[in-house]
Amino acid sequence: MHAYPNPEPGASLILAFHPVPSTSTTPPQSILLLGAGRLTALRSFAALEAGYRVVVGVSSSQPWDPEVRYRIEEGQIERIDWDLAVDAGAEVWRKWFAATDSAGQLDGVRLVVLTDTVAAGGRRRDAVSARAFRDEAARRRFFVNIADHPTLSDYSFASTHRFDLLDSSRKSPLQVALTTNSSACRLATRLRRELVAAMPKSAGSAVAAVGRLRDELRGGAATDDDSEETLVLNRPVEQLTRAKSWALDEPSSSDWSTEAATATRMRYVSQISEYWPLDRLATVTANSLSAPSTPTRSPPLSSSYHDLAVPSDLALDSVTKKKGRILLLGTGPGNPLLLTRIAHLLLTTLDPTSPFYIDLFLSDKLVPSHILDLIPAERRKGVVIARKYPGNAEAAQEELMALAIEAASQGKTVLRLKQGDPFLYGRGGEEVLRFRAVAGIESVVVPGLSSSLAGPAVAGIPVTQRGVAEQVVVCTGVGRGGRTGSLATYERGKTLCVLMGVARLESLVAGLLDHGYPAHLPIALVERASAPDQRVVATTVSRIVDVLASLPAHRPPGMIVVGWAVMCLDGAGDMGILDADPATDPARVSQWLGARGYSVRDGLSDEWQGLLAGV
């Protein structure tokens, strides 16, 4: 039994074509479009934006689309004579291709498009002639598209949209393409419009800004953009020393090599691309990342992360000076509707006289953009997001605490946003003690729903259930300094919820097996709990690593549930697990998972979506 999905025919291999620049010995890559109608105009514009040389075959005796005529007159596209009858057969096509090729007009052509097969006025080319064209073009190793003839075409044109840049008339690099694979072309246009309308207007600018940032941080070195897909966002890395943390800009000042510094920068770009709000990414630069911090330079830290110097004016504070406040806020698993009422007030209040008004927002990296979007737009630019690039968690934590103390010492109210609950692996305790010792401020801890409980609940997994799970244990996959966390021993009636464990999944599985957890025990990975793109992967302890490797990339953040509770509500349910003979467990699991050996649930349930739609 394997964990790989079975291919289901009917899809397209969707590629993004962009021509290689021409040289003195190679002609520019070109596309040939035959016909002078509206479809030719649309295809020509798309090819021009992609950087292709466009050659259009037109007839002097047929009407031209005004845009086609304009682009020919402006020299944007090249014209060749093409006046074949709509019933032209194989021999006619062969002679035309031969003559055109001999004249050098097909140099560099890779793609050919026949457009007069659509019913758009005038005479329409018949299917026999279209097939003759296809046969001759294919014989010459051209890739063929024939309008309204998908079975004769090597490729099709998707319904596309290119996004604008904010505050500019120029276009961004961001394009979206949608295809129904010839099933519902008109519907594809509507779906594309709705997808574009649902995306933030800052999306195009965010892509452009991240592209510039990548080029700057890697020093202009050429890399394949798609190679970033192989970067695993949640993989354990070396925790950087203080010297290394701040030597990314000048690697020669430490044992931090240029290659290692570049790799760390690029991992950081990958992470902020995943976590940061799009409107924040739209203006990101190397000098503005998590302002005042950047991934290349930061203010110096004291010799110890836990020895922050106390400014003298804090020790003898004037009685007339307003004392600041620091609040630690749990933002729940991610969906804004699962915020507490007080959390919503703290994020949205605009009245400076209100006790809920916040002067400075300090956010963890994992707090999703949907939560940060609740902060009024005019104040959102001042949000500081933790600079937790790989290996820099300790330094980033210290930095945010220093910023909080500095602002509070000026009489400001600081909101420290944390995903889940501040006191459940949120490092809230150490912040409470630091703020008390250094600034003399008693923090206000505002609890939030922890993903350790809310995540399984939204995924339909009860962490306790009579007859199945009598207790629940919450642990972490990452201990202090990046070490692997400790695990509780196996008990049949126990549910284990692991936070921050995906990065160490292989070692976690090994630890589970070492602690007596059966290889066939159900396990579930709940990714982006409560978000629209939530994904739940369920299988067994022994299979989870291979299953996850066979699926599309992990969607952080994720938490792991281990135990019989994972399967107890599926289908008709199974509430008698604790009363059953353990020898029957493998058969029970096999029946639950079926022949494939795992299950994947993409998105929120229909019932959850219906509930959210009514809000």
From TrEMBL:
Keyword S-adenosyl-L-methionine: yes
The UniProt record lists the keyword Nucleotidyltransferase: no
GO BP term (any one): siroheme biosynthetic process
MF GO annotations: uroporphyrin-III C-methyltransferase activity
InterPro entries according to UniProt: 4pyrrol_Mease, 4pyrrol_Methylase_sf, 4pyrrole_Mease_sub1, 4pyrrole_Mease_sub2, CobA/CysG_C, Siro_Cobalamin_biosynth
Ranges for domain Tetrapyrrole methylase: 326-543
Keyword annotations: Methylation, Methyltransferase, S-adenosyl-L-methionine, Transferase
CDD domains linked: SUMT
Name of this protein: Tetrapyrrole methylase domain-containing protein
Species in which this protein is naturally found: Rhodotorula taiwanensis
